[in-house]
Amino acid sequence: MFKGFYQLTSGMLSQGRRLDVIANNMSNVSTAGYKADRYTDSTSFREVIISRVGNKDKVNTEEIGRESYILAPDQLYTDYTQGSLEETELPLDFAIEGDGFFAIEWNGQVAYTRAGSFNLDDENYLILPGQGRVLDENRQPIQLPTDNIYVDPDGTIYTLNNRNPLATLGVFAFQDNGALERNDHGLFTGGQLQESQGYVIHHKMVERSNSNMVHEMVSMMSAQRALQSAAEMSKIYDQVMTKDTTELGRV
């Protein structure tokens, strides 16, 4: 009987967490460069504990306390698949086709983003509004005398009139995107850099979110139904246990 309660609690916890992630994805459907979050398949609470205390080699694991039947989403991960590119005709909009991130000078450190809707600040530095200055290939802030520019596919920025080179947009790739961590501002930090290859910079375009509203709606309805089912079953278990307790008391 108690095992049933554990399993139902597992379902409600898991689906509740999935709904939180789905809601965040839906709220960012229109956010340029946003990468959707996903949960991997559920695992037992015991396995989560073993992993988090450092024993990740599952060959000679040891039992930790009593077995738990509570399942939880195993791990939150970010889907880095390419979002669709949309033409904006804005002179300071850029999109990366392929692997790589723009670099932003953020709170004294370097953070990374796929969002390419840039602007110029009061000192004519290229910025990601509300975040920081955009960095070039040498991780230096990019200063432009004008927004009347032309950009090569490799990210080199020229003046439109005489094609004088001004700067080159920094595009940085990582050995494992899964090692990146997203902060509260939607920027990525961490990870081991590697040489960027095979990317193309598209001028006057932005990469849209890879979060699909139809997919998220279907996932949301599925999670809600599972959550409601678990909640209803828990009520039935409660009624059965109440009846058993009452009958036992009479005996």
Q: Can I get a quick summary?
A:
By secondary structure, the protein is of the alpha+beta class.
Silhouette: elongated
- N- and C-termini, Cα separation: 20 Å
The largest sheet is: 7 strands, antiparallel
Secondary structure class reads alpha+beta
- Total helical elements: 3
| Average pLDDT for all residues | 82
The tally of beta strands, per DSSP, is 20
Characteristic key phrases:
29% helix; 251 residues; alpha+beta; 3-stranded antiparallel beta sheet
Tell me what you see in this structure.
The protein is built from three helices and 20 strands. By secondary structure, the chain is of the alpha+beta class. The longest helix has 38 residues, at 213-250. Strands 7, 8, 9, 10, 11, 15 and 18 form a seven-stranded antiparallel sheet that branches. Strands 12-13-14 form a three-stranded antiparallel sheet, with no helix packed on it. It is elongated, with a radius of gyration of 25 Å. The model is unreliable at 44-56 and 62-70 (pLDDT under 50). The chain has helices at 2-27, 45-52, 213-250, and strands at 37-39, 42-44, 71-73, 76-78, 85-87, 94-97, 101-106, 109-113, 119-120, 126-128, 132-134, 149-151, 156-159, 165-168, 171-174, 181-182, 188-189, 193-194, 200-203, 205-207. The protein starts with a helix and ends with a helix.
Topology:
Layout: H1 2-27, E1 37-39, E2 42-44, H2 45-52, E3 71-73, E4 76-78, E5 85-87, E6 94-97, E7 101-106, E8 109-113, E9 119-120, E10 126-128, E11 132-134, E12 149-151, E13 156-159, E14 165-168, E15 171-174, E16 181-182, E17 188-189, E18 193-194, E19 200-203, E20 205-207, H3 213-250
Antiparallel strand pairs: 1-4, 2-3, 5-20, 6-19, 7-8, 7-11, 7-15, 9-10, 10-11, 12-13, 13-14, 15-18, 16-17
